[in-house]
Amino acid sequence: MRAEPAHQVRLLDLQEVDTELDRLNHRMRALPEHAQLQQLDARLTQLRDRLAVVETELRDLDREQRKAERDVEQVRMRAERDTQRLEAGHVSSPRELESLQSEIASLARRQSELEDIVLEVMERQENAEERRAALAREVAEAEAERETADNRRSEAVLQLRDELDSATRRRARIAEEIPDDLLDLYRRLREQNAGIGAAALRYGRCEGCKLELSTAELREMRTAPPDEVTRCENCRRILVRVADSGL
């Protein structure tokens, strides 16, 4: 392949911009804020799940408390009716009187037991409320931390996009100056060689694979026509002769 020496040197400028684009794209993918946000999202999910469990527990306790209070009220009202009957003197039979008194005593014990249940449920509610409040604070703190991290990521992404846009425009300008056949070869070699399709020959060494050329290879490079597109024998990248090639 033949190409003007100036076009070959320009290929090095294109390689430099492409390397910068690769670096910027890698930075975009590897922003630490990405991993931080993933960790915060996982933590938020866990906290919200725990909060949902506590809120469900509180709803269950609320139903349990209302039922226990209804049971207390029913027992209290029944005991009150029995007491009114007893005090009104409506019961004359000693046997019936004894039965009524026994029922009133039994209802008093039952009411006491139910009131203990209400108190126990209220204690559990208080404990659950404290846990809900603590979890709600943790969720709020994690959400604030996530918002801060998201803002930092957005700022970093915007800055990188600006740099990417600038580098992309520079690349387009340089690529327009390079012949299509040389550009196509460079693209293929970039895909095959970890993003490096062209390298300079400096002081007898290929800047692509960092290996020194043999005496015979240097002699071939020295005698090759200036417009001949030469390749490194080791890595097969386009090898561009420059002022400090050492030829």
UniProtKB/TrEMBL annotation:
Keyword Coiled coil: yes
Annotated source species: Thermobifida alba
Keywords from the named record: Coiled coil
PANTHER family: PHOSPHOLIPASE C-BETA-2-RELATED, SCAVENGER RECEPTOR CLASS A MEMBER 3
Transmembrane spans: none
Domain (C4-type zinc ribbon): residue spans on this chain: 205-239
Superkingdom of origin organism: Bacteria
Protein name listed in UniProt: C4-type zinc ribbon domain-containing protein
Domain CT398-like coiled coil hairpin: 14-193
Pfam families in UniProt: CT398_CC, Zn_ribbon_9
Keyword Cell cycle: no
Lineage: Bacteria, Bacillati, Actinomycetota, Actinomycetes, Streptosporangiales
Ranges in a coiled coil: 37-177
